[in-house]
Amino acid sequence: MAMNKFAFGLLLVVWFMFSCTDRSTGGAWDVDLMEVSADSLDYSLFVDSIRYIPLECTEECMVGAVTDVAFAEDNIFVFDIKQQAVWVFSREGAYESCVSRQGNGPGEYVYISQFEYDKQHGRIAVLASGQGQILYYSPRGEHLGTVNLSVKADDFKLTPQGDIILSCAGRDDASAGIYVTDAAGQNARPLVLRKENHLVYATFPWELCAYDDVVCFMAPNFENGVYHWEEGELSLAYPFRMLPEPGQDYEETVSLQHFGDFLRTTYLEGEKWILATYWSADPAKDLRVFLYSKSEKRHWVGRDFRNDVDRRGVGIRTAYTDNNTLVTWEENKDPDRNPVIGILQLK
Q1: Domain that holds residue 252
Q2: Residue 112 sits in a domain of what CATH number?
Q3: 207: closest CA among 256, 165, 151?
Q4: Per-residue pLDDT tens for 218-260?
């Protein structure tokens, strides 16, 4: 069940405060989401520099919403969930081409929920969740092939070994969890399943992350251990436990309108940082963001953050990318122009 637009918008722009050392209890690293020392966290804690790329606007290219971003050596790929398209720009932001094949015919999709750029093969992969398919396209929009999935998913990652990692972790049924399949989308086996008493329906972007050759995810959905899949092996890399834990069982989905526990809504991970946002309808809890430094082995919890690097303001987060960068976007000051991509080089 989706949150209202106001709450979801806040979740995308809220971040983190409160430094502490990690407390380990029974193998888990306890994090108290109620321990907040200040309202704002400075960018300078984790951001080294920011550069901006305005996306060219033409008669053929009017971006509706930046949902996710991927980079190649010469291109920027922008997934636009409103337009149901993947826009292709140069690294300087010049418009080049578009993948837009919405329809019911061969090589077409009804609805894309997520996309990937397959660097190994130089192709764009889109997840048509309702169809249970991954469709491959060239950057010029030519259909290159379709994979039928044995597990319907809301997010996916391609691995260098050819496996596909699929997430249906946000669904409210017994099969909800993270799966791995072969390159043909078959022979699915579960990696981590949702607990039977955690069946709240809440799907959000970025259930899966990847950097270098690692695919990573947080366990669904009141569990918060961070798992890594690398070279065909699964490991529990960071056994976080967020407090307070749920005050009740959820053996079937419930309305989020009066939801009193913390629910994780966003998870991002890169080479050096882990970020996650948490929401509750309880005004005493409201919004929290968790930030973890892998190098310092410490975390922060807070409500929002402040751009003290260039004081331009806070963009909307979209994704981690390789090379320890975080991608954001902001509306262009000219409402008739396309958004501006912000590339945050992290410390």
Answers
A1: 5-346
A2: 2.120.10.30
A3: 165
A4: 999 899 999 999 999 999 999 999 999 999 999 888 888 899 9
Three-state secondary-structure class, residue 285:
coil
Collapsed DSSP state (helix, strand, coil) of residue 314: coil
> Around 56, how many Cα atoms within 13 Å sit in the side-chain half-sphere?
17
Please, where are the H alpha helices in 133-263?
none
| Cβ count near 60 (within 10 Å) | 10
Give the HSE-up count for residue 103: Cα atoms under 13 Å, Cβ half-sphere. 8
Two tokens, residue 190? 């579960």
- Give kind and range of the element (H or E) at residue 44: none
Return phi, psi of residue 171, to 5°: -85, 160
In whole angstroms, what is the distance from residue 227 CA to residue 248 CA? 25
Residue 61's CB is within 10 A of a number of other CB atoms, namely 21
CA atoms within 13 A on the CB side of 140: 1
- With contact defined as beta carbons under 8 Å apart, do 43 and 37 qualify? no
Torsion angle of the four alpha carbons 3, 204, 329, 160, in this order, in degrees rounded to the nearest 10:
180
Q: Is the pTM of this model over 0.70?
A: yes
Give the residue from 17, 19, 30 showing the smallest Cα distance to 238.
30
Q: How many folded domains does the chain comprise?
A: 1
Tokens of 306: 């402040």
